[in-house]
């Protein structure tokens, strides 16, 4: 059972002011490859899983940004850590029609 939700907004610096969307697409691909449940939203992506694993995904996302030419990266994250279990669906079920 997942014990954490982690939302991330990754903001890679680009060399010449290029569009960041191709970088963000690569960051989301890292999440998809990890196999954790996730949801892409307009300003951030939320993942569900074990806290340590989620942080390792964040680390890999940052590394991929650098490997693809970004000289630096800002990652804004929010974490819900709940050892008894954390779920995106459970947290938002009352807001769904």
Would you mind describing this structure in some detail?
The protein starts with a strand and ends in a 5-residue tail after the last helix. It has 3 helices and 4 strands; from the N terminus they run βαββαβα. The chain has a 4-stranded antiparallel sheet with strand order 2-3-1-4. The chain is 37% helix and 27% strand.
What's this entry about, in short?
With 97 residues, the protein is of the alpha+beta class.
How would you classify the quaternary structure? Answer: single chain
The CATH architecture assignment turns out to be: 2-Layer Sandwich
What is the CATH topology assignment? Alpha-Beta Plaits
Binned, the helix content reads 25-40%
Unreliable spans are none
Give the domain tally: 1
Structure annotation, total helices: 3
- Rg calc: 14 Å
For the secondary structure, the number of strands is 4
Strand order of the largest sheet: 2-3-1-4
Envelope shape: elongated
End-to-end C-alpha gap: 26 Å
Mean pLDDT: 95
Pfam families: Thiamine_BP
Family: Belongs to the UPF0045 family.
Organism: Planococcus maritimus
GO cellular component, one term: cytosol
Features:
single chain, 97 residues, alpha+beta, Alpha-Beta Plaits, four-stranded antiparallel β-sheet, 3 helices, elongated, Thiamine-binding protein, UPF0045_domain
Topology:
Layout: E1 4-12, H1 21-34, E2 38-40, E3 45-49, H2 51-67, E4 73-81, H3 88-92
Antiparallel strand pairs: 1-3, 1-4, 2-3
